[in-house]
Design a protein that fits this description.
The chain has seven helices and no strands. The chain has about 120 residues and is mainly alpha-helical. The chain has two domains: about 80 residues, no CATH class; about 35 residues.
């Protein structure tokens, strides 16, 4: 689940040993790493190539995932292409929802408002 560059030498050796023993796991790992690179580097133009590679392979779960991406292909490609993201906005909304859950039934709207504004001011 982590970038192989961040693994210790012992974990890297163990991973290579496991991947050497299981061809399907090695193929799945390569496909997942390629898809992660598409996400991280925002390379929507390479999405079709990735989908075609996965569909040509023998891994049914990944093939099913690729077929699912084709259902809403335009939206997926558009989400992978622009250099900007709404991640910071979603993070702020998540913080507000967390505060709201923590305050549920404890105090009124005035205190909740103050906690939200103080949290935003700290960031």
């Amino acid at each position: 689940m982590t970038d192989p560059a961040n693994l210790s030498s012992g974990h890297t050796a163990r991973l290579q040993e496991v991947l050497h023993c299981c061809l399907e796991l090695k193929q799945a790992t390569e496909h997942v790493r390629t898809f992660a690179a598409l996400l991280a580097q925002r390379q929507g133009h390479r999405l079709d190539d990735w989908i075609n590679e996965v569909r040509a392979g023998d891994l049914q779960p990944l093939r099913s995932f690729a077929e699912g991406l084709l259902i809403d292909h335009d939206a997926v490609a558009a989400g992978l292409t622009p250099p900007y993201s709404n991640g910071p906005t979603e993070g702020g909304i998540n913080k507000i929802k967390l505060l709201k859950r923590q305050m549920y039934g404890r105090a009124g709207l005035a205190l909740l408002r103050k906690r939200i504004l103080l949290t935003i001011a700290r960031n």
